[in-house]
From TrEMBL:
Free-text activity regulation comment from the record: Feedback inhibited by histidine.
GO cellular component annotations of the record: cytoplasm
Highest taxon above the source species: Bacteria
Span of domain Histidine biosynthesis HisG C-terminal: 207-278
Record-given protein name: ATP phosphoribosyltransferase
GO BP field: L-histidine biosynthetic process
Family: Belongs to the ATP phosphoribosyltransferase family. Long subfamily.
Gene3D superfamilies: 3.30.70.120, Periplasmic binding protein-like II
Amino acid sequence: MVKIAIPNKGSLSEKSVQLIKEAGYACKRRSRELVVRDTTHQIEFYYLRPRDIATYVHDGIVDLGITGRDLAIDSKREYHELLPLHFGKSRFYYAVPAHLDITPDDLDNKRIATSYPTLVEQDMAKRGNTVQVVPLSGAIEISIQLDVADAIADVVESGQTLKEAGLKTIGDPIMHSEAILISKASHADKDSDIATFMTRIEGILRARSYVLVEYDAPRAKLDTLTELTPGVEAPTISPLTEDGWVAVKSMVKKKGINILIDQLYDRGARGIFVSEIKTCRI
């Protein structure tokens, strides 16, 4: 059986399970079990701590794993990133008291509290700084107030938590993170079951970026309308019973769909409908 590690809690877990279910696999837990077996597809799903998943992948205990890019890098384990999964996105910043006017390059000989010591050590080394990394597992923001650290390095989403703690980010993000699918080797997809799993996941991810637009078009204006909706290979065009009209169906990017509808209507399209796409192969 193929063994795949899934985060055992939090938003990474919920969105991983949703993605895998949409791909047609039975991975949902009934309670708090650590292993779910999909006997139809011969896959075992292991629910593990996100921070540990890169280690299990590196050691060959599981074939694939879903975790955050930040956690995988911080693990110090070697792995191969197969797919970015486009959820769990975050930015990793340094932060200091709001009244200070400094940059990350000014943190030499300072104490930096973080849950990601490897990321901080690597980044500070690139800058030529020597720092004391203070590893903490949570509530990083309070460490400066308690005089445990001079600065912190942490995942930042809205920045509201930092603001409430009297802190501000400095410099550009150290890194951009998101959920990723990883394996021990780049050739993991040589296994047919793994290749099928990856292809299905890719199909779901691609479908989330597209919609299917359908509309009726005057044949005389078909060329100018299909310029807006060229499709993947070409749009599907079917005759209508109304003389001089055809039906057009095309796959288009979801982003900006309302602007596209306005443009289609202005060019003469009528009966415009947009449908979600559950999965696809392109």
